[in-house]
Amino acid sequence: MIRNRNLFHFYIYIGGLMLLAASLPLSPFLVTLSQMILAVNWLAEGNLRNKMQRVWQRKPLFIFLLLFAIHLVWLFNTTDFAYAFRDIKIKLPLLLLPLVMGTSRTLRENQLKVILLVFTGAIIISSLFSIYHLSVIAWNPMSDVREISVFISHIRLSLLVNIAIFSLIYLLITNTFTWQRPLRNTLWISLAWLILFLFILQSVTGIVIFIITGFLFILRFSPWFGESYWYIRYPLLYGLTAVFAAIVVYSAVVAFSFSRGEISPDKLKTYTPSGNTYIHHTWNRQMENGNYIWINICEPELEQEWNRRSSLEYRGTDHLGNELRYTLIRYLTSLGYDKDAAGVSRLTETDIRNIENGMANHIYQNNRWLYPRIYQIIWEIDSYRKGGNPSGHSLAQRIEYWKTGLDVVSANFWLGTGTGDVDLEYTRHYAERSTLLEPEWQLRAHNQFLTFLISFGIAGFLLAVFSMTAPIFMEKRQSQMLPFIFAIVALLSMITEDTLETQAGATFFAFFYALFIFSRDKSYPENGYDSY
Q1: Element (H or E) spanning 17, and its range?
Q2: What is the DSSP string of 38-100?
Q3: Cβ–Cβ < 8 Å for 361, 375
Q4: pTM higher than 0.85, yes or no?
């Protein structure tokens, strides 16, 4: 009877893990529901005293749980308890999932692989929904491809896609199941599709993580595979090298276009073809496609000719809410046209629609490809470097977040701001810095390590990093494929994202950490990849 009862709870446990794995890319509601199922089942199973003893005996699990405990301890210097308790609620998966998965019956290899198959299947379903959404918005050239992630943020989805890609490689390399050829072919097709989809998604964070993780994966594990897996190693190596080289070369070409010499006043035009005077703001060094934006401008001609060709007022806003005159001037510059009546008259009807829709550079109409995104990033950096407003520009904003965050750190170096006062300190320091960021863009660090340093000071920061990394080595997982891949993906994501500051991010981190580190017996093979 006891054995049957234990099996019953174990089957619910496996079902809860499968539901959680499937929910991560598809349904925030089911993510919460699956964790509730796991928690209730864990409590109903009983034997809580032995489970708590297991936590104490398994030191790596205890150390990881300190990551959640730090947030409780650092309430001692918090003043905004409403924010602090909201933050602690978000971090509950960091307590719940390792506790449940680290003290439950260990998973066998086949059970782990079924969970991974369910997870990758859910990722593929999510990607198909995204492609359908892409087909719906394809008519709008100003639609942001990154918005095709229907259920969760595109950055979070890109992290999950990375885990799915390397999980598929793991499934193809190991042979615990008696794989039939149709199933293996399906896995190969799925692998190729998810790599392609990652680039369709245009998450720079996800793509960079894929390239770095892929290289580290090859360097770390190819000796274990030998020549028998050349069909995985060489395509991945050469493909990553080609993609990396293409991105570097294109980025270098674009960056070079922003490094033109000084403007020679004696070479600037004085009059338009219509005989009106040009205005030149030579102090403003902003550029589009290698052309200076704020020279050769005649606004009276621009206004008259634009109002003749468009129903949107020159002094009004475009469909994205930006000043239309600014969008028009940038767009004309991107084409290499002077900013006068002659320049506007050369615009096609497609150009007019693009400008009305808020497109500031003609290359953005090819937004289904990656190169406009690369150009946009470099333009943001150049514009910010020349004193431009970073509001609405993802990378430029992050630079401003990090600068402000370092100011907060310097003022709270030893003990931090406390769990709940990060937002208050950021608001105060934005005001002190007289930041150009508009209020709706005055956000937090977007760097998990910086957030730890701000919240907990140097001592808490070191303890938090130790609690995240030490269990991997204490459990001797660093030489195994899935834990290694997950650690690289998660830690890289924390450089440009507050990965643990949202419930989706905290659940992603806690689930895969517990799945790969704590849910399996410590004695399983350590030959570089997890084969039985």
Answers
A1: helix 2-23
A2: HHHHHHHH--HHHHHHHHHHSHHHHHHHHHHHHHHHTTTT-S-HHHHHHHHHHTTHHHHHHHH
A3: yes
A4: yes
- Crossing angle between the packed helical segments 48-57 and 59-73, to the nearest 10 degrees: 100
State the amino acid at position 141 in one-letter form.
Answer: P
- Asked whether the beta carbons of 162 and 489 are under 8 A apart, the reply is yes
User: What pairs with residue 339 in β-bridges?
Assistant: 297
- Residue appearing with tokens 């310097």: 410
The rounded radius of gyration (Å) of the Cα atoms in the chain is: 27
Residue 215, phi then psi, degrees to nearest 5: -65, -45
Question: Residue 277's beta-bridge partner residues?
Answer: 271
Q: How far apart are the C-alpha atoms of 90 and 79, rounded to whole Å? A: 19
Q: Look up residue 208 and give its two tokens.
A: 């960079």
Q: What is the pLDDT of residues 310-343, one digit of tens each?
A: 999 999 999 888 899 999 999 999 999 999 999 9
Cβ atoms of residues 272 and 341 within 8 Å = yes
Please list the residues that pair with 279 across neighbouring strands.
297
**Phi then psi dihedrals of residue 490, to 5 deg:** -65, -45
**Neighbour-count burial for 450-484, b at 16+ CB within 10 Å, e otherwise:** bbbbbbbbeebbebbbebbeebbebbebeebbbbb
> Residues 307, 265: contact at Cβ < 8 Å?
no
Exposure string over 497-506, b if 16+ CB within 10 A, otherwise e: bbbbbebbbb
How many CB atoms are closer than 10 A to CB 367? 20
Q: What is the pLDDT of residues 242-287, one digit of tens each?
A: 888 888 887 887 777 777 667 777 778 999 999 999 999 988 888 9
| Count of residues making up the chain | 532
Token pair listed for 454? 């701000």
Q: CA 22, CA 19: separation in Å to the nearest integer? A: 5
